[in-house]
Amino acid sequence: MNVLDFARAFFTDSAHWHGYDGIPTRFAEHVGYSLEALVIAAVIGLPVGLVTGHYGRGGNTLALIATAGRALPSFGLLVLMVIWLGLGTLPVMIPLVVLAVPPILVTTYEAVRSVDPSPVDAARGMGMPEARVLFQVELPVALPLIYSGLRTAAIQIVSTATIAAYVGLGGIGRYIIDGLYQKDYEKVVGGATLVAGLALVTLAVFWAVSRLTVSPGVRRSG
Amino acid sequence: MNGFFDLPSDLQHSYLGLVGLHLREALLPVLAGLIVSLPVAQLCVRFRWIYPPVLGITTVLYAIPSLAFFVVLIDYFGQSETTVMVPLALYSLVVLVPAIVDGVRSVPPETLAAAQAMGFGPVRRYLQVQLPIAVPAIIAGLRVATVSSISLVSVGMLIGNQGALGNMLYDAQTYERSALAVNSVLTIGALGVLADGALVLVRVLLTPWMPKKGAGR
Amino acid sequence: SSDGGTNDNPLTGGKASGDSVVVGSNNFPESNLLADIYGEALKAKGIKVTYKQNIGSRETTYGLIKNGSVSVMPEYNGALLAHLDQKAAPKTLEETTKAVNAELDSRLMLLDPSSAQAKDSVTVNAETAKKYHLTEKSSIADLKDVAKDLVIGASPEFQTRRQGLVGLKSVYGVEFKSFKALDVGGPLTRAALKNDDVQVADIFTTDPKISEEKFVVLQDPQNLFGFQNVQPLVHKGTLSQEGVAALNAVSAKLDTETLLKLDTQLQAEKKDPMDVAKAWLKSVGLG
Amino acid sequence: MIRIESVTKRYPDGTVAVDRLSLEIPDRAITVLVGPSGCGKTTTLRMINRMVEPSEGSILLDGQDIRQQPVNTLRRSMGYVIQNAGLFQHRTILDNIATVPRLLGWNKQKARARAAELMERVGLDSALAKRYPYQLSGGQQQRVGVARALAADPPVLLMDEPFSAVDPVVRKGLQDELLRIQEELGKTIVFVTHDIDEAIKLGTKVAVLRTGGRLAQFAPPAELLSAPADSFVEDFLGADRGIRRLSFFPADGLALETAPVVPVDADAGEIASRATAPYLLVTGSDGRPLGWSEPDKLTAGAVDREQLLDYGRPFLPATDSLRTALDGAVLSPTGWAVAVDGEGRAVGVVSQQVIGEAIRDAHSRVAERADAKAGR
Amino acid sequence: MIRIESVTKRYPDGTVAVDRLSLEIPDRAITVLVGPSGCGKTTTLRMINRMVEPSEGSILLDGQDIRQQPVNTLRRSMGYVIQNAGLFQHRTILDNIATVPRLLGWNKQKARARAAELMERVGLDSALAKRYPYQLSGGQQQRVGVARALAADPPVLLMDEPFSAVDPVVRKGLQDELLRIQEELGKTIVFVTHDIDEAIKLGTKVAVLRTGGRLAQFAPPAELLSAPADSFVEDFLGADRGIRRLSFFPADGLALETAPVVPVDADAGEIASRATAPYLLVTGSDGRPLGWSEPDKLTAGAVDREQLLDYGRPFLPATDSLRTALDGAVLSPTGWAVAVDGEGRAVGVVSQQVIGEAIRDAHSRVAERADAKAGR
Ligand SMILES: Nc1ncnc2c1ncn2[C@@H]1O[C@H](COP(=O)(O)OP(=O)(O)OP(=O)(O)O)[C@@H](O)[C@H]1O
Ligand SMILES: Nc1ncnc2c1ncn2[C@@H]1O[C@H](COP(=O)(O)OP(=O)(O)OP(=O)(O)O)[C@@H](O)[C@H]1O
Ligand SMILES: [Mg+2]
Ligand SMILES: [Mg+2]
């Protein structure tokens, strides 16, 4: 049996399509955790990245924070949080957010930093208030890069959210952990395929959002 | 036995032993990734059409959780370090290939034209011009790959204590010794930050030709 | 290709198997402790020992010992049988021993069983016990009508094992509302049961938490969880006669009470399993 | 009027970019700041709209210190145009131009109508309105930059090397356009460049700065060319100072001779009657010049066009300068320049000698005016 | 000699960048390719060192098809200089320059010694040797680019808009440097630019290309200015064609008058004896000019220097051109230009009229040569 056979076996088994352990439920759980973590990380990372990028200060500090964030092992944090906080979603959210903040923060900072200075200069010269300079001049141009940071974060979250299963939560990781202990490769491969599929969906969503919200002027010239 | 650096016997290693094991499990895959990604990246540069599919495949690979890889690979490599290292090497490819491709592509076209006009053959041009100029980009990629590799090794704990420092997490849990988990997380974090710092140092040493910070912009 | 096959697999890290005995364990503390005990007993006889601990579930470890990456595993005979034969339902220890020996891979052998038993069990927390008037006398079967409102927590493999959801349904007709995958009677399971995240859980009968948290272990009249005597599983030819004798000597000294006592030292007193193992071996004159 | 009063700018790192600079910038005229790289031109310009604050001294706008009004109000009253236009790449051309009106709170429709009007004014095809900056050539982008700065009809326009990134041909077009717009709208323009030719072409007055941000000379371009204040200015003006100065002397006063102009179908008598001139200019039946000939080489009715001498580049007396006339004379092997009307018909000829006299006359007129001004 | 024989380049996307171009590039001279953006200049240049292969036609080097030698050997025999220098940012200045010698297998020491020699030749301070490109100004980088191209002493130098990214002042310096180097080393240089002034200044011969890669004219610059082949070339040359052409006519043939030159301490008699001239040039005791005066306004022994008229910009007859002389004459209110020697001492004066005659003479000499060549 090769990987493809496992995947086919997994997806054709009708038992996998309903109930609390069915694909729809697990998929929805996974999307739920991932979205929640992404939103929290974005709420932390975007404003800080935008403001520091706008003023061009604190790049070194951000880089340090980002490195530290990347260096902390998500899995280790998860276990530590479970030990400290017990079971629940919070111990899962913390490592996911720690994982996702660095790429969002750093790319947002870089994106705003690297906006061509001359339109910004022109905007100030025509008497635009700073907030408008940030939101109406820098942000629209920085958007594609900012999306790429969010996208990286989202993919990492989707992939890493599987560890929630280790501490008894649901999500697609359930198939992988269960498969490991039950020595059931169908589940592992099926779970991995689902995660990869969700990653592709994520990519598609970002592509669509960027199509809709990035000005054609930026898209074509960037 | 309850000192911060005293480990339960079932870990089979001293603290420093685990650190060494961890570094080996984390760094060997990055090295392997680097060795593989150099030619792959060069192919992507040479034949532009290869790059998008390579990027697509690597992105999907990147999305597959490490644990899933581990479980499937147990079949081929058993519950061994190899099983842990193979996916890590794959992940490092995902970071390194684009980094090298972008680095090599970022070489200014005038520089390439100048090299071509001076009679550099393709191999010489790659080794003596493109690659050295891509060093900062390559190291930037290596930094990300190394740090995340160091962090990911810990998941190996789930496949029979192959997670080096991550193995402490299991004991922390089963014996309810949270200090072990703190130790594990902090040590792994510190290793990551140190490795990152070391790579920055390597970059500074290798690229005396880069404008110093602040001189630019 | 699911479990290593017959070719001796050089990639499994058992490089020491040539000249030293590899003692493995499953991923729960008691298994670690037992591995330490058996391993140290071998060491006391001057045999070289390497440990390979926390490997994972039986589904994994059985493959490893079969192909020789591991030489000795502390096993539980009933559980092993259930792994080898989903349908087996022995009524006595002898039947169990016979059945498991019949199913065992030809490269493996079981040494003498000890009298120490550490069974999986269906255990409810105090709240649930109160709500449904369950006592130590109640049987798993008593859950039949109320199980649809209860969540059971256990290790992931419990879900697909006969000595798990499969057997609970076929033997007792009990079907729970849902299953929550946790760990092997470890801290997650205990915590979940205590916090009422799950109302029912698989807890080892040797777990000191049972009395501490006033959990109620339900009776298993149908012997679904069978006989769970600690019994070393050995890859043939890796252990000398002397080694076999050493392990049998240990098994002879082990009983359920001892195991409970040692587990308590491990979990409540947070002692290192190796220290516990050595101390006990010494106390019985085997260390 | 903008008055810069003894302004010094010292950057935090100690660089003195502008050193005790005083300038009176005339209203409704183009004032050009010119000087070598790093001499403080940009700094000076940016102090006017307070993107840089002076370290010492003050700047007055219509007699009032510019620090007395809110900074954004001040900036909105001044258009600002920079190199590469600094367009907003995420906005269409129309929306780029409408930016300041929108900032001032105009409604979208009104702002866009205004933007459309300005596109026409700066010579942009209305078909470009919906495009994005990347779809425009450099010259077109620069026009959008100018239109954007003009959008709210600010009395003052600040321009920082606006045309230096486009190629010479396009650049010339943009300069002409700017002169036209200035004439039509009468803005007060402060224009920064490091190109002395551009400064001379555009400036009503030119301020030459030297490195260190000190003023070397502030004068109308003709005066700059005729009387550079010192060797720095002289070197900066470069060679050709005399000839370039001729651009400021119109050619309309030149005494044209019509006698040497003969139509190609002239008869022998006519040719003979004009033979006093050393050369005759033969014109075609449409009146356009064909070429020069010595009178005795000209046979009535049988002009060999191949044998005619090149007549150089003709000039239009009404609009061209003595520079063009002299160039025409120098280019022609005969030393005579040809004057034509708007249709290209020869209206007369003039010798290099006469041009030389006209130049001398112009010189003395300038000198007289200077004397009168100096009270001499 | 390089011969381009009816070469056409069609890019894979169908663009015809060069269309049946034939050129004979003279040895030991600078040939400039000039034309509007996209006219195929770079493509042509790159076909010479085979960085682009022609679609049709062939290129001969000393009579031999360039395809007959290995491509890298060919390239190493041709220096290549481009905009922004294209330096290797990861190598020191010295190692940049030593690149081709190293490629040719010289040992490190010899290559570096050669590089140091070349740094001096192109006017780079040896203190820069150990620096990296980012530490150099644009002009210095460009010099490194030239030095690098010269390092292996190749007979041919290909230069693609090498100076277009530096500012005008530095650019002029680089152009002068190139002319000096060319004079010293006698390389065959093919130089691409889109700046017609640069083309005229540097080119021994100039090829004007039009969009579509067709040759419009191939001639020495003076001929280009006096006889543009068509209106495209004429427009491309721009105004001032006549005056710019004067650069090619030396001023050494001008008949200088010494009579109007009087020293500041001249006595009344001497002044009177020279009063036939309309103006007298007063010189200081060091022989340098002070200014013009009408003879009757000049009082012996009491010259009011303030009252003297500006003498414009003097010219050096030995090295300057008629253009400079004319400029001097036009700049002076008297219409006379002052000739000086190397020390700045007045050696004579010349009226604009005489310059005009000299121009006409020069014209007719050129015409005679052309006639002679045409066999007329
Ligand atoms: N923010 C700053 N901090 C420190 N020094 C500065 C700053 N901005 C400009 N300078 C310095 O001040 C001097 C004048 O700069 P400015 O930009 O005004 O020159 P410029 O005349 O516009 O030059 P260019 O022609 O190159 O644009 C230069 O020496 C420059 O390096
Ligand atoms: N690799 C290529 N593929 C397709 N078309 C090309 C390629 N290189 C150049 N061209 C086209 O060929 C024409 C001539 O290009 P070339 O670079 O030779 O022009 P150029 O005269 O050097 O212009 P510039 O002054 O802008 O450098 C242009 O239309 C250009 O777009
Ligand atoms: Mg400036
Ligand atoms: Mg080109």
UniProtKB/TrEMBL annotation, chain A:
Subcellular location: Cell membrane; Membrane
Transmembrane segments: 31-50, 156-177, 189-209
Domain ABC transmembrane type-1 stretches: 27-213
Pfam families reported for this sequence: BPD_transp_1
Entry's Gene Ontology cellular component terms: plasma membrane
GO biological process: glycine betaine transport; transmembrane transport
Main location: membrane
Keyword presence, Cytoplasm: no
Membrane topology: Multi-pass membrane protein
UniProt keyword annotations, A-Z: Membrane, Transmembrane, Transmembrane helix, Transport
Family that this chain belongs to: Belongs to the binding-protein-dependent transport system permease family.
Stated name of the protein: ABC transporter permease
Organism of provenance: Streptomyces actinomycinicus
UniProtKB/TrEMBL annotation, chain B:
Keywords (A to Z) from UniProt: Cell membrane, Membrane, Transmembrane, Transmembrane helix, Transport
A cellular component term, taken from the record's GO annotations: plasma membrane
A Pfam short name: BPD_transp_1
Cellular localisation: Cell membrane
CDD domains, alphabetized: TM_PBP2
GO terms, biological process: transmembrane transport
The keyword Transport belongs to this UniProt entry's keyword annotation: yes
UniProt keyword Transmembrane, yes or no: yes
Protein origin, superkingdom: Bacteria
Membrane-spanning ranges: 26-47, 54-78, 84-101, 133-159, 179-206
InterPro entries hit by this protein: MetI-like, MetI-like_sf
Annotated ranges, domain ABC transmembrane type-1: 19-203
Membrane topology according to the record: Multi-pass membrane protein
PANTHER family, sorted: ALKANE SULFONATE ABC TRANSPORTER-RELATED, MEMBRANE SUBUNIT (PTHR30151), GLYCINE BETAINE_CARNITINE_CHOLINE TRANSPORT SYSTEM PERMEASE PROTEIN OPUCD (PTHR30151:SF23)
Family label: Belongs to the binding-protein-dependent transport system permease family.
Protein name as catalogued: ABC transporter permease subunit
Automatic annotation (TrEMBL), chains D, E:
Enzyme kind, highest EC tier: translocase
Ranges where the ABC transporter domain occurs: 2-237
GO molecular function list: ABC-type quaternary ammonium compound transporting activity; ATP binding; ATP hydrolysis activity
SUPFAM superfamilies: P-loop containing nucleoside triphosphate hydrolases
Keyword Chaperone: no
Keyword hit for Transport: yes
Enzyme Commission code: 7.6.2.9
Record-linked PROSITE patterns: ABC_TRANSPORTER_1 (PS00211), ABC_TRANSPORTER_2 (PS50893)
InterPro entries tied to this protein: AAA+_ATPase, ABC_transporter-like_ATP-bd, ABC_transporter-like_CS, P-loop_NTPase
Keywords in alphabetical order: ATP-binding, Nucleotide-binding, Transport
Pfam hit, one: ABC_tran
Signal peptide interval: none
Family of this protein: Belongs to the ABC transporter superfamily.
Protein name as catalogued: ABC-type quaternary amine transporter
